[in-house]
Design brief:
The complex is a heterodimer of chains A (294) and B (530). By secondary structure, chain A is mainly α. Chain A has one domain: MetI-like fold. Chain A has 11 helices and no strands. In chain A, helix 7 runs antiparallel to helix 9 (197-233). Chain A is elongated, with a radius of gyration of 23 Å. The mean pLDDT of chain A is 85. Chain B has 530 residues and is of the alpha+beta class. Chain B folds into 2 domains: 5-272 and 500-527, Periplasmic binding protein-like II (D-Maltodextrin-Binding Protein, domain 2); 278-497, Roll (Dipeptide-binding Protein, domain 3). Helices cover 30% and strands 21% of the residues of chain B. Chain B is built from 17 helices and 21 strands. The longest helix of chain B has 18 residues, at 472-489. Chain B is globular. Classes of the chains: A mainly alpha (294), B alpha+beta (530). The interface between A and B is medium-sized, with 26 and 27 residues.
Chain lengths: 294, 530
């Protein structure tokens, strides 16, 4: 963009905030690394099954065959003799899906409650915040176990249970943003031209409150994946859906004799959560001008 | 007591000395004294086995209370509180002659009236209703004679008079009119057995001390038995390994058993669980299509590899089980169809039953449930079925239950296709086998009744006859035929005996290895000389 360009002089603020954030983000080495890692994991999960085909439930070799000893099962087999590499590939989808679904549930509940509380204030705020606090003080793992126990284990129940447990943080964050933004001039302007509450909340405040919420949601994906692994570890997972947590849960009793059925899905979970966290931190830096100086 | 086997082996050639040592150990004079610390995962609600079944109450209960008879490792009865007994020729009465000098822990004599009271209490309140169901009256002609009158011959009666199944409880304590199920003495009993209760901390520990006034001279040999309860299997293993505990009687997980076997301070045995006769099996809902067809059930039988389950899945610690009667029982019939793996036969049977494979190779869908909390015996086998039955075109969905009551409710209300289950024989088929196959025991809402809704008049007739047949050979012939029929009808595919193992310190001699194991009085066990 040349200095002499009249358009640039006329509108010196033409760089959109998103574009600016992207500029910051792509200079952030850990964030870029995390993004690439996450993309690699997603590609691995999405396309891996086309390259390395096979039913993850099929018993293909002797149980607990160590990795590297048998060419047909490069990562070895689990306690039933099922191929661990197939399990990793097939189990990645549900694992990531539960993480994403739980994050979306968190966002939906959190934004609805937090937004209403922050926008209207007063007794509505008091009431909704007491409800939020109630959910916040419940021991998260126990509460999730109760939810799953009530509606027998399945992938959907697991996602709902995690979402229901993790939303209060998002609600509080949303409320804080709405409280701040509703006092700004452009909101007053919108109100003065006769916009209704719903429109103001949805079209005016929410887009401006989104950046911190996106950061929070990204980090929630990581937390949800870990949470799901924990629930599987306790045996509260759908046994019909292969997931990394399930692989760990069913094989952990043999860890002293066979480390590999537990270790490989463990590494997969670690890498995924690590990548998601790097992305989340990168987004946080990018959207928050105060942190950019670091 | 400090001399370990390793030290002895180290001092001389192992091969030369080991058999010699074993011989010396057996020949030495049994020692008296010492304490034995047992660890258990099971926490009893109370300590009165007269009104509570199960090993949690049974193990301490059999130490606190004596029973009329004892059983050895060969299913033979021996005198205990009854110094002799006589079964009438017509099988309609059994007379027990009690030892004269037996006393309860409070010093009062044990009389025939207490035997009468105990049997009546058990008949009225114990969950195993078939044990004393034929008992019409208990007569007490004198203080030391009790005659049990029966409405019909009852071949299982002697077994029902043994071990934790028939504790002799004092009438002067438990017969005071209060409800026996909630009687305060259930947790603080006055007993009749070799050990008296010193302390009972529910969920933590039970400590028992020697009854110095016991009616068998020089018994028990141990001064103390302490049962430590922990619900953390890892903590239990560590305690046994580092010598904090001396024995762990109910290990079942292959990981645990193998770890204990590797420890050269410990002996590990699978003896002592024949009486329990715990069978791990796959049950079919025989009234629900397509499992109402015998051919479909048989096809599933042929599609399952029992040897894979016991050898690979349970890693060799479990024994295969082909029959409703535990294979270590004298009533087991080895001729029962075994359904050895044969996928071609399974496919042929399914075709013949009219379930042709669709274009995707699948025939139909089934669900399989399992008891939560026993991963290796139950959940892993269910997972295996999902993988294995796909090979014959059956799409299996594993249905998880979040807790035991949920599972029990589903199964007892017939809301299932197939389920993994574990059911105990309890010594005699009358107690633990009949209940699963009698059509009269199809009782909705009752778990471990005939939840398969299996019904075969010939089986009902055979079991009815076997329940009253006093001649062993004739009774065995009836059970042989019964096994051939259910083996063909296959309402249940029997998989394996639950791999119960006991691990104990090598320096302990005469560890209880009768059919009841630690659920019978531990009178003879002692610590070898140091």
């Amino acid at each position: 963009m040349g200095v002499a360009d009249p358009a640039a002089i006329a509108t010196p603020e033409a760089i959109s905030p998103l574009r600016e954030a992207w500029t910051v983000y792509r200079r952030n080495v850990p964030a870029v690394f995390g993004t690439l890692l996450l993309v690699a994991i997603i590609l691995f999960v999405l396309y891996g099954t086309f390259i390395y085909k096979g039913d993850p439930y099929e018993i293909v070799w002797a149980p607990q065959t160590p990795p590297g000893t048998e060419a047909t099962v490069p990562l070895g087999t689990d306690n039933l003799g099922r191929d661990i590499l197939r399990g990793l590939l097939k189990g990645g989808g549900p694992t990531l899906a539960v993480g994403a679904a739980a994050a979306i549930i968190t966002l939906v509940i959190g934004i609805s409650l937090g937004g209403v509380a922050g926008y209207f204030g007063g007794w509505i705020d008091d009431l909704l915040m007491r409800v939020t606090e109630f959910f916040q003080v419940l021991p998260a793992l126990l509460f999730a176990m109760v939810v799953i126990t009530l509606f027998s284990p399945s992938t959907i129940t697991t996602a709902i249970a995690i979402g229901v447990v993790l939303w209060p943080q998002t609600a509080r964050l949303t409320r804080a943003e709405f409280l701040k933004i509703r006092e700004l001039e452009y909101v007053t302007a919108a109100r003065s031209i006769g916009a209704r509450n719903g429109r103001i909340m949805w079209k005016v405040i929410l887009p401006n409150a989104l950046p911190p919420l996106i950061v929070s949601a990204t980090l929630t994906v990581g937390v949800a994946i870990l949470f799901q692994a924990g629930l599987s570890f306790l045996g509260l997972d759908d046994p019909n859906t292969m997931s990394w947590g399930l692989m760990i849960g069913t094989n952990r009793q043999y860890i002293l004799d066979a480390w590999w059925p537990v270790t490989f899905p463990g590494i997969a979970i670690f890498l995924t959560v690590f990548a998601v966290s790097l992305v989340g931190d990168g987004l946080n830096d990018a959207f928050n001008p105060k942190l950019r100086e670091r | 007591m400090k001399l370990t086997r390793r030290e002895i082996l180290g001092s001389a050639g192992a091969l030369l000395v080991a058999p010699n040592f074993a011989f010396r150990a057996h020949a030495e004079e049994p020692q008296k004294g010492g304490a034995m610390v047992m660890v258990s995962t099971q926490s009893p609600r109370h300590l009165n086995p007269a009104v509570q079944s199960g090993a949690a109450t049974g193990v301490p209960g059999a130490q606190i209370f004596a029973s009329p008879l004892m059983f050895d490792a060969n299913w033979k009865p021996h005198p205990y509180l009854a110094e002799s007994w006589k079964v009438a020729d017509d099988g309609l009465s059994v007379t027990l002659n009690l030892v004269k000098n037996a006393k309860f822990h409070d010093g009062k004599p044990i009389t025939s009236d207490d035997v009468k009271f105990s049997i009546e209490t058990i008949k009225a309140h114990h969950p195993f209703t078939t044990m004393f169901e034929p008992v019409s009256a208990v007569e007490t002609p004198d203080e030391h004679t009790a005659t049990i009158r029966l409405a019909h011959p009852h071949p299982a009666l002697l077994l029902c008079l043994s071990s934790a199944l028939c504790p002799i409880i004092p009438r002067h304590i438990f017969g005071d009119g209060r409800d026996i199920m909630t009687h305060p003495a259930n947790s603080n009993p006055v007993g009749s057995g070799p050990f008296r209760l010193e302390e009972f901390k529910p969920g933590q520990r039970i400590s028992l001390v020697k009854n110095t006034d016991f009616f068998i001279p020089d018994r028990p040999r141990l001064d103390k038995i302490i049962i430590t309860i922990s619900n953390d299997p890892n903590a239990i293993l560590l305690a046994v390994e580092n010598g904090e505990a001396d024995c762990y009687p109910f290990a079942t997980a292959s990981q645990d058993i193998k770890r204990l076997q590797r420890n050269d301070r410990l002996d590990v045995t699978d003896k002592g669980f024949e009486g329990l006769g715990a069978i791990n099996w796959l049950a079919f809902n025989t009234k629900k299509p397509p499992l109402d067809k015998k051919m479909v059930r048989q096809a599933i039988g042929y599609a399952i590899d029992r040897n894979f389950i016991t050898k690979a899945l349970m890693r060799g610690v479990a024994k295969p089980q082909r029959s409703p009667i535990i294979e270590s029982s004298p009533f087991f019939n080895p001729k029962i169809p075994a359904y050895d793996l044969d996928l071609d036969k399974a496919n042929a049977l399914l075709d013949q039953a009219g379930h042709k494979a669709g274009s995707d190779g699948m025939r139909f869908k089934l669900t399989v449930d399992y008891i939560p909390g026993a991963p290796e015996q139950q959940e892993s086998v269910a997972q295996y079925l999902k993988s294995q039955l796909k090979k014959v075109g059956i799409d299996v969905e594993v249905r998880a239950s979040p807790d035991f009551p949920t599972w029990a409710k589903r199964i007892s209300n017939y809301d299932f296709d197939m389920t993994m289950d574990a059911v105990y024989n309890w010594g005699d088929p009358v107690i633990g086998v009949h209940r699963t196959y009698l059509s009269s025991n199809i009782r909705k809402g009752v778990i471990w009744s005939n939840t398969q809704r299996y019904s075969n008049p010939k089986v009902d007739e055979l079991l009815g006859k076997a329940a009253v047949e006093m001649d062993f050979a004739k009774r065995k012939a009836l059970y042989d035929e019964f096994q051939m029929i259910v083996g063909d009808d296959l309402p249940i595919y029997w998989i394996n005996a639950l791999p119960y193992h006991s691990a104990y310190d090598k320096r302990i001699a005469d560890f209880p290895e009768t059919i009841w194991g630690t659920m019978q009085s531990i009178n003879d066990t002692y610590w070898k000389k140091a």
